């Protein structure tokens, strides 16, 4: 039986740099650069920078 290959995409969390605990979940290509985006944080009620961290299991 052949071993499973790695998935082409990763599921990542974009976490707010405003430190409100708010995050978006998205996916990106495994070989691509780390994501960062300016998105709306409803807790801070403004657009802030979100940076990537790996999605953790609960």
From TrEMBL:
It comes from the Eukaryota. Belongs to the bacterial ribosomal protein bL33 family. This is Large ribosomal subunit protein bL33m. Its main location: mitochondrion. NCBIfam families: rpmG_bact (TIGR01023). The keyword Mitochondrion applies. It is found in: Mitochondrion. GO terms for biological process: translation. It comes from Pisolithus tinctorius Marx 270. One of its GO terms (molecular function) is structural constituent of ribosome. One of its GO terms (cellular component) is ribosome. Keywords: Mitochondrion, Ribonucleoprotein, Ribosomal protein.
């Amino acid at each position: 039986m052949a071993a499973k290959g790695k998935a082409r995409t990763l599921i990542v969390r974009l976490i707010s740099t405003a430190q409100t605990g708010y995050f978006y979940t998205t996916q990106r290509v495994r070989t691509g650069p780390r994501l960062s985006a300016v998105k709306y944080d409803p807790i801070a009620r403004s657009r802030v920078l979100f940076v990537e961290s790996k999605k953790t299991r609960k």
